[in-house]
Amino acid sequence: MTRKRPDYTEARNYYIKGNRNEYPTLQDIATEFNYSLSTLRKQAANEGWLKKRRERLDLKETIMMRKEFMGKASKLTNVSFNAISAAEYIINKIKEEQNQIDLGNKVFDENLATKQMWALNNAIKLIEKANSTLDEIENGHMSPIDQISFL
Fold first, then answer.
1. Whole-angstrom Cα distance, residue 11 to residue 64?
2. C-alpha atoms less than 13 angstroms from C-alpha of 118 in its C-beta half-sphere
């Protein structure tokens, strides 16, 4: 009479996937499923259970990092858009000021010219940095997992 080989599917899944954030040892599984520990160790080694568990944990961690990054990326995108809007507001205010000067309602002097130049220069820098940040997000250069190709 041939002996029926045990089905290790449930034990394998429990070892690899665990239960929530708890991962059982082979000893725990042998006790729970009433398997011989030595036979279970051989089965686990032959099927690479430990490697599969590590890959699963690494993937889980990668997914968590990705989710966390995407939340930060969307916030960073909003900050960049707000920076561009603020810079455009400054530029429009300077244009309005220039219109007042052209109409003769405001006096143009060195102090005003210096203030406008400083404000325009900083507004342009703000726009350039915001656009650079948006480009990096869009092109994926800010991703913490650039090297992972299977996601």
1. 26
2. 6
